[in-house]
Structure formats: C-alpha cells, structure tokens
Amino acid sequence: MSAVPTRSVWTPGQVGRVAEPVLEIKNLSVDYGFDANPTHVLRDVSLTLNRGEVLGLAGESGCGKSTLAYAATRLLPPPGMITGGEVIFTDRSGDQVDVLSQSDQDLRASRWQDMAIVFQGAMNSLNPVHRVGRQISDALLAHLPNMTKKQAMERSADLLDMVGISPDRLRSYPHQLSGGMRQRVMIAMALALDPQVLIMDEPTTALDVVMQRQIVEQIAELRDRLGFSVIFITHDVSLLIEIADRIAIMYAGEIVEEAAAQDVYRRPRHPYSDALLHSFPPLRGPRRELGGIPGSPPDLANRPTGCPFRDRCAHVFDACATVHPELVTPAVPGDDPRRQVACLRHDPARVAAGGYEPVSVPLELSIR
Amino acid sequence: MAIDLTLLEDTPDVTTAETTTSGKRRFVFLRNSKSFTGFAIIAFFVFLAIFGKMIAPYDPNALSTDLLMAPSSSHWFGTNQLGQDILSQIIIGTRSVVIVGLVAGVGATAIGVLVGVTSGYIGGIGDEGLSMLANVFLVIPQLPLIIIIAGQLPSAGGLTVAAVIALTGWAWGARVLRAQTLSLRRRDFVEASRASGESTWRIITAEIMPNLTAIIASGFVATVVFAVLTQTTLAFIGIGDPYDWNWGTILYGAQNNGALDRGAWWWFVPAGLCIALVGMALTLVNFGIDEFVNPRLRSIGMNARTLRKRGIRPRIGFTPVVYEAPGASARKTELNHSEELAVQGIDSANGRHSKENRA
Amino acid sequence: MRFFVRRIVFYAVTFWAAVTLNFFIPRMLPGDPVSALMARFQGQIDSHAKHALEVLLGLDKQTSLWQQYVDYWQLLLHGDLGRSFTYFPTPVAQIVSQALPWTIGLVGFATIIAFSLGTIIGRSIGWKRGTWADSALPISAFFSAVPYFWLALICISFFAVRLGWFPTNGSYDRSMVPNWSWEFIGSVIYYGFLPAATIVIASISGWILGMRNMMVTVSSEDYVTVAQAKGLKERKVKTQYASRNAILPQVSSFALSLGFVVGGTLIMESVFSYQGIGATLFTAVSSHDYPLMQGCFLVITLAVLVMNIIADFVYAALDPRTRQEG
Q1: Residue A253 at interface with chain B, using a CB cutoff of 8 Å
Q2: What are B26-56's pLDDT values in tens digits?
Q3: How many other β-carbons are positioned within 10 Å of the β-carbon of residue A1?
Q4: C251 → chain B, closest CA residue
Q5: How do residues B110-157 score in pLDDT, each as one tens digit?
Q6: How many B-C residue pairs are in contact by the CB < 8 A criterion?
Q7: Which CATH number fits the domain A21-244, given the four candidates 3.40.50.150, 3.40.50.300, 3.20.20.80, 3.60.15.10?
Q8: CATH code at C269?
Q9: Whole-angstrom distance, CA of residue A232 vs CA of residue A203
C-alpha cells in the first residue's frame, strides 16, 4: 500500500510481497434448487484473496463467478444453497472467522465492515424511493451506534466527494442520477465503513467505455489510498488485465486457471483462457485477431463427465472424456510455481492414473 | 378478481419466463398442485352443468308438502318454504352459472384483446384514447352500472346479463394486454418481422398473440370469477328471471322468505359455498398462471414442510448453509439422504426466531 | 407536474364519461315502462319537475339529441337529479345526500381498515416465503371468491340471529333521534360493527394476495439484497426497502379496484338494510325508480373518483419518481 502510483492505473503484480490472505474460500459448493434434484452450480471451488490485491474473476456469463461472490458473502438468493466448504475471513488483527458458520446476528454485524459489495446494475441496487444520502448514511448508522444522523450525513458527503460527486447530490433520488453517477454512489456506499474486502460484480458492464475507464481508474486510485482488497468480477478479460494483480478464470462452476495478471495475459496455460483472451479487444496495446469461442458452456444440470470444456476445446484428447482435471502447476518449465491450471495437457500424472497415454502441452499453451 | 394483474405489468419478460430452464416449463402450471386442484373443482361443476338434469333428484320447481325441512336422507340439502328440493335447485342452477360465466368471460376477453392489443400496437393518439377508455371503465363502479343497465331492461335473462357483464368487465384485461403488447412490440423479433415487410395482421397473430397466451388466459379466468360473482349478485337482488335457476336466485329466495330468522341455514349456505368454491378454483388456476408468467412467484421445491425438515430457511440476504453428509460436499451423485443431516443453518435460524419474538 | 396534469385530464374525462353514460342509458333502453310510470304521476307533478324528469329519462323526444344533452348537463350543474318515484315528490338529490354520509362512514371506514390490515398481513406472508405462512394462500383464495352478500347472510344468521350479539339490520336504534350525543354515536357503532366486519372479512383477502405477490416480487430486487449486505436490521430491510416499494403498486391497484370493491360492499348495505346509497340503489331497482337509480349511480361514481384522486395523491407522496419535472 505504500507504493505510490505513478499512473492512475497502477502497475499490476505486487508479486514480490509476502502474501497475507484476507479471504480464503475453501472447497465451496453451491446448489441451486431446494427440491430433490438441485443443480450443482459450484463444486469445491477454492480461491484466496490476499490483502491489498485486486483479484480478477473472469468467465462467460453463467460460469458461476457471481454465484461464487454471493455465496461467499451469503447473499445468494433462494433457491441458492451452500452445501459445503468454508469461507475464512481474516481481520486486520489476525482474527479468523468462518463466514458460513457465523450466526445471523454476527453476520449482520460484520457485513459491510468486513466485506462490501458493488452490485451489477447500479439502477437496481439503489432503493428508488429514498434519497441517496439516506441510503449511504443508514449503513453507517446501522454499524456505528454512537454516530448521530448529522454526522452520518457529513460522512456521506465526504464519501460522495471522494468518488467525485458533488455533496449536494445527497438530496437526489436515484432516478435523478446518470448511470455512471449511480455506480459511483454505490462505490461510495461500499466504502462507507472502510471495508477490508470489496467485491465488485461487473461494476462497469452497463456503462459506456469512457465511463468504464473512469470508474476503473477511480477504484484503482481508491485502493491505493485506502488499502482494501478487491475481487473484481467481469466477463471482459481485457479490462482485468488493466487493473488486476491476479486473475482467476472460471468455467462451468470451476476455476480452470489462476495466475498473475500478466501471466494470464501473455502466457495463458488453459485452452479456455486462451480462447477468452481472443474474444475481447484489449483496451490498449497491439491489435490482435479476435475470435469467438465456438459452442456454449455445458448445462450445469447435467454436467458431462471428464473435462467440462472438452466439447469446445481445440486441444481435446481421449482422456478428457472421462478424467476430471484438477488444478495443478502448469507443465511448462520456468513458469511461476504459484500459478495453477486445470487441464489434462498439463497433468500427465492424472492422465496416466486414468489409464490413458499423456499428451504433451501444445505450443499455443506453452508460450514463454 | 383477487388476482393482482398489475403484477403482470411489472414483469415485462413473458418470453424469458419460458426459457428459464428448458422446454419442460411449458405446461408447468398444469402440474402445479394449486392449479390442479382448481381444475378438478371446475371439472366437477362443468359435469354438473352438462348432466344436471339427469342427476337432480327432483324437479326444482316441484312443490311438496315437506315445507322448510332440514337436510335429511330424502332431501340432502333440505327444502324451502314451498317444499322445493334445494339440492336439485343447486344442481340445475349450475348450468346457468357456467354458461353465463363462460359467455361473459369469452366476450370480455375478446373485447379486452381487441382493445388492449390494438392500443398497445398502434401507439400514439389511438393508444392514448383506447387506454383512457379502458381506465374510465375501470374506475366507474361496474356493479352499479350493470345494475342500472340490467335493471332498466324489461327482461334480463341469462344471456342478456352475460352480455352486459362482458361489455363492462373487459377493462382489466385490456389494460394488462396493452402493457404487454407495448413491450413486445419493441422486441427484436417483432421489429425484425416488421422490417422484413410482414403485414400488421400477421405480426399480431403470429408474433405477438402467442406471447400473450398466458396473460389472456389469466384475464379470462379472472373475468369468469367476476362474471359468476356479478351474475349471482344480480339474481340475489332480484334482477332477472326468478325461475331461471342459478345460485343467486336460491339466495334471493332465502333472503326474502325469512330463511335467516327461521334459522334455515341449509337454504343459503350450500349455494354460497358453491359460488365461493368456483371462485376459489378459478383463483387457484390463476395462481398457477401467475407463477408461470412471473418466475419470481414460483415456489418450486419451496414446500414449507420439506424445507423445514431439511433445515432450510429460504431468505433474501442469508443463504442457507446446509452440510448434508459432512465432508462429502456434493462431490458426486452419491448424496445419501438417509444419512444424518448435519444442519448448520438451523441454529442460526432459531437464533433469529427468538430475536424476532423479543422484538 | 406532468403526472398531475395527466391525472386531472383523466378524471375530467372519466367524470364526463360517467355522466354521458348516465345520459344515454335510459335513451337506449326501451322507454315504455318509464312512460307508464310517468303517467301515474300525471297531475301531481308541476311542469318544472315534469320537464326535469323528461330530460333525465329521455322522454323529451321532440327536441334534438344535442339539446337534450345540453339540458341534461344544465340540470346536473344545478344539482337537480329529478324527483324520486318511490318517495314522491322528494327530490332525488335530497334522498341521495341523506344516504351518502352513512355509506362514506361504513364503506369508507371498512375499506380503509381492510386495505391497511390486508397490506400488513400480506407483507408478512410475502416476507416469510417458504414457511408456514404460505398456507394462508389457499385460505385467502377462498375468501376472495366468497360473494360479499353471502358472507353478510352468514354473519347475520350466526352473530345476530343465533348468538344475538348484534342487531340484524338497521344503522342505529330507531327509538333514538339522530344527534351528536355519545349515546347515539355508540348506537351507530353498535349497529355498524357487523356490516363493517363483514366488509373487512370479504375484501381483505384481495389486499393480502396482492401485497404478498408484490412483496415476493420486490424481495428479489437488488436493492433489498444490498440492504441485507449493508447489515441493516431485518425490520429496517423489510419496512424501508421491501415493503416501502411493494406498497406502490398496491396503492395504484387500490385506486383501480375501488370501483369493484365499492360495488360489492354496497350490496352489504341492502342485506343489512343499512340506510346508505347501496340500500337506496337497490330499493330504487326493485321499485323501478329510474331517477333515483341514476342519481345513486352518479353519486357512487363521483365518490369513487374522489377516492381515486386521494389515492393518486398518496401515490405521488410515496413515489418520488412521479414528482419528477418534465
């Protein structure tokens, strides 16, 4: 956090620091549906967010990236249900708590102070019948019993000022604000209690490109100033390259690759990450050829055996049909040992254990 | 009329409702237990309406010496002050109720579709005018209007009553259909067929109408409820032919011949129950349609008892955490339900309960 | 402002439509029975009153339709609704104005109680979805389909005839002279209790179901989840976020279904022989008192319009979006 940014968008990859986890999601499983045949939308997903870092979570829509964020905060609406796992939150003082086993009372008390969320559509995230100021200050008043209404309003004004909105907007109703302003209000609201983790679910999707860029820069600047950690969810990988330190790629409710942002960008190891990178134009840098990903993600209600991506994969081989890939270090010499990928091309041991002949890593997935 | 049709206006995505999970949703409202109960009750009354003459034990007009008898084995629902059999009157009267309900429902729905779809599709001044007309008809109290019209007609038979109900009761349906058509008209598939030069008539019948089916059905059902209530109300206050038996005329007779003071409950209880049963059945059918149209209202797998058994308390903002068979986190299909359920969510749920009680 | 202008235009048009409807109904229906009734009063009626009745009932066939229409409006604007046949020669306006306060008191009070109570109950049921509260739905469906007048019959036979707790009919003790004493007011409350309770029971389930559905729909809006994510108290999320928004469509459906509810409750008056507009209307219908029928209809429509306007003001006060300029 001491790093002074030289540009408005910070240089990604503070890899050299000692990683101190603030949020650890361990083997999280989520079902959708309360009846006898639920859909298993997340299966044993593990993910770690380190203090002060921006972790990007990317994937096509429906891959479970938002579900992961909402389940980790227990905000998933019915008929969503958490069926296994732990979500360990580590306080600044080092105290640990499992969000999933917290009582409702404790959870309610810790919300917004520990973790805050900026939702996808800013229009729907604000209560249309209350003034913006009231909506920011009620979060403050709920957690700071000694605060007076006047103090809460003053603090709300400061927060708005921080995200570049004139404090007289406190008296505006949501419908009187533009889309970009509403999203800034949501960010101001999320920062009201100085949270340690900020989860942003596609915060810029509904905005135009200029506004997207402004918001992203703002988040970057605030992160450097206030030192919170961010989970940034988006389907736009090129946006993540700009702001994330680390990127996790999700597919069909599983994490298929996780690595430093530059590594994902320059040296993708999973065929899906590679395909995803080629489906968005980069915000800056050299132009490259775009290509969609043929086919569509599997139906989670009847998940195929083996690798979920095999039907769309250019590098599929016989083992993919039956052996389910797990996260391992890529089989490319010289790779960062902390990065992980779930692809059988990188896991000859598992392929051999399944009784198949291992196949080497293709050239495209072993770029140095 | 209890169905809140305004709801439909707030959920413009009728088409997406169908695509939520594959095509099996298509007739989901028939498999819905509420709708099924509704359909069963309606089928029973339709059966009575068709075969009533054969089933009825007596001629409903036949006088007898059993004056004002309480229910017995010879007269299941007792007799009135003229010794007429009340069960037979109810059975024979079913036909008139069903016919008036159907005719008025079809008529009002037809007018509603015509006005609503036209107004939503043409837009502009025409739309303003037509929706104003619908709103005027909504605000003017229908029942007094119907009473005035029917009361001034020299003879108000069943079909006349049905026609008057249809002419005054179409506005709800029109209003909802207009809102829906308006949102459909801006959809890509409609814009596309308009751009490709399809005729207006074809766009309306082939592109728009199929997407309105659920709403038309729900409007129809609601209108039938309204028609049944209105018809029996009119008969009850003595408008119409007292020898054209329907459930309202029975109640009219009961009220005007002192059934209340004489404690002859069998005279008015069954007829009213029949009206309420038909109304409830239709309302239940509409619950099913509503849940079909507005996925948020669906409660698939939300049966209160099973949820409680599994320790799930569905709430916004507090996702239930239920570790079934600890450690084996839904990894494979071997979810052993007979295993002890390690219920994590339940104590937190209880904690909340007690907290609420204190508050 | 736009919202209000639109609403004012709407109410003006509705009022005009109701009056015009009232003008055309007797003219489109066969007039013979009316002429026959008029003949009964030949000689007892002065020429001015006779002309008024002819205008109201459409017997002035020799003048042009437009002239009839103008005459009709003139009469109405002077508050002349003709003479009642049944209570001849009392003017209809006088009968109606005597009956109206009773109806406003009974139906208005009971409807507001039913609406408030139903909204509160529906709010809880919708919020506690997937619990025992859902079993209230089929019960509500049943009650929403019960005919009002039948429920009145049941209540009278049980509470008034069998138990003798309440009088079977009337609106106050006939041995008293209406005045503002506590004794008389007590009598009015005593006589009004059963009809009011019946109206509440009959109409409450519609409000319960409507609010429940809105509550379920609104609960899945993002801002409710945001409120939970902020760690607000459950009560605050429920009242200030969920139900505060769910009530908006509830208020607009209150305005729209008022016509229906009022129609139903008027019949209660006739069952309870309660001396309001409803009972007057039914007396008029059964004795073919056409001028009185029309007068009642006009007044009922006007009352519903006024309640609609009030509901609109409430809506505007609740929803900031309607107050938006432009």
Answers
A1: no
A2: 455 556 677 888 888 888 888 888 887 887 7
A3: 12
A4: B6
A5: 999 989 888 888 878 888 888 888 888 888 888 888 887 777 676 667
A6: 233
A7: 3.40.50.300
A8: 1.10.3720.10
A9: 8
